[in-house]
Amino acid sequence: MRNGPPNIIALSESQSNRGEADGLVGDCTKGDLVPLWREPRPARLKFLFSIRLMAIESNLGIRAGNGIMSVFALLFLVAPVAQVEPSQVANERRQAYADELVRSLELTNRATAYSRHQQPILRWSNLRNGYVGGELQVWLLDDRPVAISGIFFWPANDAAYTEVVKLTNGPIVARRDKRDVWLSSDPAIRWALLSEAGNPGSTRPRRLRQMRDLAAQVETEAIKQPPAYEPNSVWQLRLLTQPLFRYQSERHGVVDGAIFAFGMETDPELLMSLEARKRADGTLGWYYAFSRMCDWQMHARYNDRLIWSIERIYETHNPGRSYYRSKPIPFEANVETKPNN
What is the DSSP letter of 4? Predict the structure, then answer.
């Protein structure tokens, strides 16, 4: 995924227990998540002002710290940029188109259709790289996540993209309009025991605190490359402290589990799954696994120890990989369109 400013309302500790029955940390309703394609105005203005100020500094040689700024430069700084903010009509059409893309996607293992959770588990936006917004959905089998899918828009080429990442080592087929668009049998996830983590707690609230504490001790980074970034530039990824999704699965022996996201601001680039389940000796332990949500090389460390790494991939629309991102799906805010890949 991409880098962007915050676009999700943080849930309070009291809110974090309301939705536990259905697997969510908070009530995943329109009240908990901001509208998909709208960035809060203060964040947008701060972003625009910083861009304008950098332009002034670089092109006009003016430093705000010196207290010297021409009237022209000041007017340039505060002048509105109407084209950056999409119209209400465009926002509504993007949301409708996103809903259509979500409804048209099916995930199966050929024998069984996976069920999509009724609400998105995250909505995000990314003005720094020009993305209007995106959202994630989780797919389940026997109450355990098997895949995460997403959709996002990039106005630069007026297109939408869908992406899917496997959370299981079994085969997954993605279908749209009754045709296959992605088939992956690659091993996607590697579970390991986090032996230093101790035993899971006896209550759900205590296990939630443990999972959040464990995730907070993990440091992750992405190594990014040109043309969008400097060669081998290291980007520290930030943990979203509220898990995206919480679950348990009796059939798979999962007493408790959660999916956390690391990213730039609220734009997730790496997912960490944590599960409380039995060790070989029959006692409960904490198991972890990572899944990419972008194509960059990434590393994860726990207590300064490297516990996971993955190389950069190319051609993310390759249907054989465990992470898939579609080719651009054309979209025009004022024209009726239909997804075709």
Answer: B
